[in-house]
TrEMBL record:
Gene source species: Sesamum calycinum
Binding site for Mg(2+): D306, D310
UniProt keyword list: ATP-binding, Magnesium, Membrane, Metal-binding, Nucleotide-binding, Translocase, Transmembrane, Transmembrane helix, Transport
Catalytic activities: ATP + H2O + phospholipidSide 1 = ADP + phosphate + phospholipidSide 2
Cellular compartments per GO CC: endoplasmic reticulum; Golgi membrane; plasma membrane; trans-Golgi network
Listed GO biological process terms: Golgi vesicle budding; phospholipid translocation
InterPro entries to which the protein is assigned, alphabetical: ATPase_P-typ_cyto_dom_N, ATPase_P-typ_TM_dom_sf, HAD-like_sf, HAD_sf, P-type_ATPase_IV, P_typ_ATPase, P_typ_ATPase_c
Annotated protein name in UniProt: Phospholipid-transporting ATPase
Transmembrane segments: 396-416, 443-464, 484-501, 513-532, 552-575
Length: 676
């Protein structure tokens, strides 16, 4: 293959046994894009003949075929349906003989379009339409595209988690439906709504050759079908059995369904369905459907794909996930997250995604709580001072409250907090529905935190002030405003840090270190800060903490006030957990006496939960492997799988390339040894 020629080794039927290399000249290449759904090449034979070859989706190729050859069209259409029913991916091939005059006239227009500065892509598509017509059908191709391991289980788990899954594919309808069945997205118990352009009525209008009439007829047909589906869906919802619904629509019908006049109806029907399959869709249509759900239904959308034709869909969604597979790295480069296989989406969403949601909710609400508590203690002080502007806390206390004294614990909870471990998150995917309902960040949750912030600020301020009204230091003098404010600030720091421990689902050594370190940092700071004579503006703090700590009042208040402030929270959390538990709390109670089995050994899993074959497959899956930078599949480099398996005691049959690789490694090792 060169930029202008291609050599093909051919064996002719009339000259059996004779093989020769034939060189063809490549004149023009009409590239594939999301609108054309086809690719063409114009080549010159050695004898001077000019031929256009075209490959593409069957719906696109059949529109551009010549009128003759109906028998081959019918036979090929039957073959395409058989291939699609078998789950194979199909393409149609066609050609057209060109006369030199026709080609020269067309090539002049093609060169002008190719050199255009404005709307070049559009002009190239228009010029391609001039020559890609009156084609003669060659036939169809079909290839198998196997599902990755774990895809059906992953989709079933995500469906149980309350996630609605839509399949947007370029395959034929039969192939798409077969894949949906294989993925357990559709089953026989579902009521299926199928909107297709492959009907006898539409084919009759197609045969007339009037594109305007065909467009009008198809739009009207799609409109009637959508209304019919919507009415049937309402009937099923009011029935006793209430079966799940599935919508299957092809690319041509989808083009008319995305019209502004029908878009709302399509969205209503789709949202009432448990599964939606859009087949024979272009990359542009994938992005349009994603944007329709994102903006029209105001739902959070996630798109996942592995090829360049999925890039627009990935970019149109809120969250884009790319699979680093056999189809290149374009999807990965355009995505927010990259995974090696589709089944890892379970861990990404149900484990890490849910943990992140819980952590973010806790971090945001806790920040709101601790700052409201701290601010309100100063607000209550203004009532005593008659709003004179007298400050309650020292400036450095206020500046370092969020920076040092309460910063580290909230970071730790944002990094390490988890309600249940990874294995339970996947065992109970319904826990993910709490995030869909936004259970942990509703106005009710914020109002509850605000209520307890107000309650604690009142307790902290009034108990400290009331207890200090009759307290005296070791010299017999009454405490001043800076003694009271330092005592109140100490209680605030201890209370908000201990409250963070009460909201943790699991407490590790990092929680102890962060909370204890924050409280210790406050005492170290105030010891140093109070031990120096500062400028006049800060001289009131001098020696305050030493005076306070020399009295029994300090230790009694330090013990009593935080306990009284947190007592209401303790009662609330106990009542809520006993009588109004969240779903994850129920799971915690079920498995409270079980050890954390998120890292179960291979033998333990094989003996208890899995069949021998499943246990062996799981054991192989857990082995360390050399991961390819290009494909993303483990054990991409030959020779590693059986080696690691033998080390772990798992039997894996040796492959031919393993033996060859080790033989070559031994020979190279022996040569190196001889040299040494």
């Amino acid at each position: 293959r060169s930029p202008t020629t291609i050599s093909v080794r051919e064996s002719h039927i009339e000259k059996m046994g004779k093989v020769q290399d034939v060189q063809y000249e490549i004149l023009n290449v009409l590239e594939f894009n999301s609108t054309r759904k086809r690719q063409s090449v114009v080549c010159r034979y050695p004898d001077g003949r000019l031929v256009l070859y075209c490959k593409g989706a069957d719906t696109v190729i059949y529109e551009r075929l010549a009128d003759h050859g109906n028998e081959l069209k019918s036979a090929t259409r039957e073959h395409l349906e058989q291939f699609g029913a078998s789950g194979l991916r199909t393409l149609c091939l066609a050609y057209r003989n060109l006369s030199p005059d026709v080609y020269e006239n067309w090539n002049d227009k093609y060169i002008q379009a190719k050199s255009a500065l404005n709307d070049r892509e559009k002009k190239l598509d228009e010029v391609a339409e001039l020559i890609e017509k009156d084609l003669i059908l060659i036939g169809a191709t079909a290839i198998e595209d196997k599902l990755q391991e774990g895809v059906p289980a992953c989709i079933e788990t995500l469906s149980r988690a309350g996630i609605k899954i839509w399949v947007l594919t370029g395959d034929k309808m039969e192939t798409a439906i077969n894949i949906a069945y294989a993925c357990k997205l559709i089953n026989n118990n579902m009521k299926q709504f199928i909107i297709s352009c492959e009907t006898d009525a539409i084919r009759e209008v197609e045969d007339k050759g009037d594109p305007v009439e065909l467009a009008r007829f198809m739009k009207e047909t799609v409109k009637n079908e959508l209304k019919k589906c919507q009415e049937e869906a309402q009937q099923y919802f009011h029935s006793v059995s209430r079966p799940k619904l599935a919508l299957v629509i092809d690319g041509k019908c989808l083009m008319y369904a995305l019209d502004p006049s029908l878009r709302v109806t399509l969205l209503n029907v789709s949202l009432n369905c448990s599964a939606v399959v859009c087949c024979r869709v272009s990359p542009l249509q994938k992005a349009q459907v994603t944007s329709l759900v994102r903006k029209g239904a105001n739902r959070i959308t996630l798109s996942i794909g592995d090829g360049a034709n999925d890039v627009s869909m990935i970019q149109a969604a809120h969250v884009g996930v790319g699979i680093s597979g056999q189809e290149g790295m374009q999807a990965v480069m355009a995505s927010d997250f990259a995974i090696a296989q589709f089944r890892f989406l379970t861990e990404l969403l149900l484990v890490h995604g849910r943990w992140s949601y819980l952590r973010i909710c806790k971090v945001v609400t806790y920040f709101f709580y601790k700052n409201l508590t701290f601010t309100l203690t100063q607000f209550w002080f203004t009532f005593q001072t008659g709003f004179s502007g007298q400050r309650f806390y020292d400036d450095w206390f206020q500046s370092l409250y969020n920076v040092i004294f309460t910063a580290l614990p909230v970071i730790i909870i944002g990094l390490f907090d988890k309600d249940v471990n990874a294995s339970l998150s996947k065992k109970y995917p319904e826990l993910y529905k709490e995030g869909i309902r936004n259970v942990f960040f509703k106005w009710r949750v914020v109002a509850t935190w605000a209520f307890f912030a107000i309650y604690q600020s009142l307790v902290l301020y009034h108990l400290v002030v009331a207890s200090s009204s009759r307290a005296v230091n070791s010299a017999g003098k009454m405490f001043g405003v800076w003694d009271v404010s330092t005592m109140a600030f100490t209680c605030v720091v201890i209370t908000v840090n201990l409250r963070l421990l009460m909201m943790c689902n699991n407490i590790t050594r990092w929680h102890h270190i962060s909370v204890g370190g924050s409280i210790l940092a406050w005492f170290l700071f105030v010891f140093i800060y109070s031990g120096f004579v500062l400028p006049k503006a800060q001289e009131n703090i001098y020696f305050v903490i030493y005076v306070l700590m020399s009295t029994f009042y300090f230790y009694f208040t330090l013990l009593l006030v935080p306990v009284a402030a947190l007592f209401g929270d303790f009662v609330y959390l106990g009542v809520q957990r006993w009588f109004f538990p969240y779903d994850y709390q129920i799971v915690q109670e079920i498995h409270r006496h079980e050890a954390d089995n998120s890292r179960i050994g291979l033998l333990e899993i094989g003996n208890n939960d899995l069949t021998p074959d499943e246990a062996r497959s799981y054991a192989i899956m857990q082995l360390p492997g050399q991961k390819s930078r290009h494909t993303g599949f483990a054990f991409d480099s030959p020779g590693y799988e059986s080696f690691f398996a033998s080390q772990a005691g798992v039997y894996v049959p040796q492959k031919a390339w393993d033996v060859a690789r080790r033989a070559s490694m031994k020979s190279s090792w022996s040569k190196t040894t001889r040299k040494n």
